[in-house]
């Protein structure tokens, strides 16, 4: 699972996710990408499940790039614990995702295989998604 080697602060505020993304909205590495349409948090487990589904469907041909990294610590208190007594311990790592962000890119496969792989990967995510292609790629396939 992805998580930072070290962080400046052990625990983070929850925060809010406002507006559309300003970075990672265009394809930079691959010919096809999976773009998120809703705001939310993406956990390291969800990202890993998506990556596995995409690479398995592509039968390890082509190349996959993950464009997000879970660097936000999410804390939880144990069940049946009374209120107060401080913040809970870090349970998982997540990434804040704004609408328009590309989270996975692939290259080296046909459009049909890429769309099927992204459909399987998107089933593991808590967002609505859309497949985007580099301009001119869709016309060839």
Describe this structure in words.
This protein has 3 helices and 7 strands; from the N terminus they run E-E-H-E-E-E-E-H-E-H. The chain has 141 residues and is an alpha+beta fold.
Map the helices and strands.
Layout: E1 32-36, E2 40-43, H1 44-57, E3 63-66, E4 72-76, E5 89-97, E6 102-107, H2 111-122, E7 129-133, H3 137-140
Antiparallel strand pairs: 1-6, 1-7, 2-5, 3-6, 4-5
Helix pairs in contact: 1-2
Short description:
The protein is α+β, with helices and mostly antiparallel strands and 141 residues long. It is built from three helices and seven strands; from the N terminus they run E-E-H-E-E-E-E-H-E-H. Helix 1 (44-57) packs antiparallel against helix 2.
List keywords for this structure.
141 residues, Aldehyde Oxidoreductase, domain 3, three-stranded antiparallel β-sheet, 3 helices
Task: Estimate the mean pLDDT confidence.
Answer: 94
CATH superfamily: Ribosomal protein L16/L10
SSE string: EEHEEEEHEH
* N-to-C CA distance: 34 Å
Radius of gyration: 17 Å
Main beta-sheet annotation: 4 strands, antiparallel
Q: Tally the beta strands.
A: 7
Question: Main sheet: which strands, in order across?
Answer: 3-6-1-7
> Regions with pLDDT < 50 over 5+ consecutive residues?
none
The proportion of residues in beta strands is 25-35%
Pairing-aware structural class of the strands and helices?
alpha+beta
Helical coverage, percent range: 10-25%
Tally of separate domains: 1
CATH topology: Aldehyde Oxidoreductase, domain 3
Q: What is the CATH C level class, in words?
A: Alpha Beta
Q: Count of DSSP helices? A: 3
Shape: elongated
- What is the CATH architecture descriptor? Alpha-Beta Complex
